């Protein structure tokens, strides 16, 4: 069994973003989109704004990309406005023992999140998990030829593995967004689908392809392991072909 590298998503994988954070992000995004649409003379009703946000997310994998490509919005400005919170720490919910869990898992851990750097750093530090990650790859770092290519971009994943000198078969992507796992599996990576937070709120439908039925859905062929929580990972190492030896 080869030495492993874990690529962990953040929201709805390591903590419950559907509880309060995703609804706040959705409200923030809607305010930005409404302003941009109104400035261009387009329909800026709540229905039109919701439709635009979801359409861009479904087409590009991130609403941000649609706003950049169709409305020339600055990525850094959009991300900044979308991730403004009155009290982020009070909004974070997570299971106990995540630090011990990460310490138990063999191999290197990389955070790979479509969230911006400042927000994801704040969440990691609040959870006390930052020390467990060898590297942090936020959406700002997911570029190919100077173009943003966030998950589920296979090109971005391929470039990341090459830069980190990680063989695809030695990498495990741990995600709540099942569509992101499909591309990773096509590259030869191992895949873990976390389903425990998928039905938390309607806002999760954008960020996690969520629907209550997904938690009960049959595991797709491109998913090696389906778990309610990341805390179940140590018991599934053999299924993933991972040695429990941390040395």
UniProtKB/TrEMBL annotation:
InterPro entries: HAD-like_hydrolase_sf (IPR050155), HAD-like_sf (IPR036412), HAD-SF_hydro_IA (IPR006439), HAD_sf (IPR023214), Pyr-5-nucltdase (IPR010237). It catalyses: 2-phosphoglycolate + H2O = glycolate + phosphate. Pathway: Organic acid metabolism; glycolate biosynthesis; glycolate from 2-phosphoglycolate: step 1/1. Belongs to the HAD-like hydrolase superfamily. CbbY/CbbZ/Gph/YieH family. This is phosphoglycolate phosphatase. NCBIfam families: HAD-SF-IA-v3. Keywords: Hydrolase. The keyword Hydrolase applies. Its EC number is 3.1.3.18. It comes from Noviherbaspirillum suwonense. It holds the Pfam family Hydrolase. GO terms for molecular function: hydrolase activity. Coiled coil: none annotated.
């Amino acid at each position: 069994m080869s030495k492993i590298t874990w690529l962990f998503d953040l929201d709805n994988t390591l903590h419950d973003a559907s509880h309060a954070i995703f609804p706040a992000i959705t409200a923030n995004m809607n305010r930005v989109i409404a302003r941009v649409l109104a400035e261009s003379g387009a329909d800026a009703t709540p229905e039109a704004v919701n439709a635009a946000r979801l359409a861009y997310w479904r087409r590009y994998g991130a609403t941000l990309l649609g706003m950049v490509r169709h409305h020339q919005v600055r990525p850094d400005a959009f991300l900044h406005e979308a991730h403004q919170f009155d009290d982020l720490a009070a909004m974070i919910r997570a299971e106990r023992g995540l630090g011990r869990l990460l310490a138990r898992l063999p191999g290197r851990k990389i955070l790979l999140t479509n969230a911006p750097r400042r927000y994801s750093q704040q969440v990691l530090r609040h959870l006390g998990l930052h020390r467990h990650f060898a590297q942090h790859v936020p959406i700002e770092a997911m570029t190919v030829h100077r173009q943003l290519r966030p998950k589920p971009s296979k090109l971005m994943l391929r470039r990341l593995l090459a830069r980190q000198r990680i063989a695809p078969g030695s990498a495990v992507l741990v995600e709540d967004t099942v569509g992101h796992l499909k591309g990773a599996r096509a590259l030869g990576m191992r895949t873990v689908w976390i389903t425990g937070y998928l039905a938390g709120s309607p806002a999760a439908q954008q960020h996690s392809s969520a629907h209550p039925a997904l938690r009960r859905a049959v595991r797709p062929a491109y998913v090696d392991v389906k778990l309610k929580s990341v805390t179940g990972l140590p018991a599934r190492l053999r299924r993933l072909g991972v040695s429990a030896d941390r040395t």
